[in-house]
Design goal:
This protein has a six-stranded mixed β-sheet. Helices cover 27% and strands 19% of the residues. The two termini are 27 Å apart. It is an alpha/beta fold and 155 residues long. The radius of gyration is 15 Å and the shape is globular.
Length: 155
């Protein structure tokens, strides 16, 4: 699993919190930052710059073209940093579910009540069929993220 961060220099004020928490809990993971073209991010991140004139959707898509379709990433925005240590074993189990194509994506924040339990893992719940993708920390393959940004309506 790699950490895939989307950010913009307009939100640079939150970067210190992102770095503090990521350094604390995710320092051993490779990190990739999608950032606007007039900005620099930390050197320990692979930076992919996007054209600030593009809309959000096409910024993401342009950056994803530089990545391996089969890489599994934890897709986040700069304000989605950890508050406490994650369960690394559970993240590994979730990554393996995606790697072995048992599911396409796993959202790491539950947004609804009364969800049905998944049959593929005791810690997972099923997402409602008619819910569109929402921006939250999500574990998935790059090709799945590309599909979402090419398919889901809206900017």
């Amino acid at each position: 699993m790699k950490i895939l961060l989307y950010t913009h220099s307009d939100y640079s004020w939150v970067w210190k919190f992102w770095h503090q928490q990521t350094d604390k809990f995710l320092r051993n993971f490779q990190k990739i930052c999608m950032i606007n073209s007039n900005s620099l991010f930390r050197e320990d991140y692979i930076s992919i710059q996007y054209d600030d004139k593009k809309d959000y959707r096409n910024r993401i898509l342009s950056c994803l073209e530089a990545l391996n379709d089969n890489d599994i990433v934890l897709f986040c925005h700069e304000d989605m940093f950890l508050y406490k240590q994650p369960n690394y074993e559970l993240l590994k189990e979730f990554t393996n579910l995606i790697l072995n194509e048992k599911c396409h994506l796993i959202k790491l924040i539950r947004a609804f009540d009364n969800l049905d339990k998944s049959s593929i893992h005791e810690k997972l719940l099923l997402n409602p069929d008619k819910q569109l993708f929402s921006i939250q920390p999500t574990l998935l393959k790059v090709k799945t993220l590309k599909y979402i940004y090419k398919s889901v309506p809206g900017n």
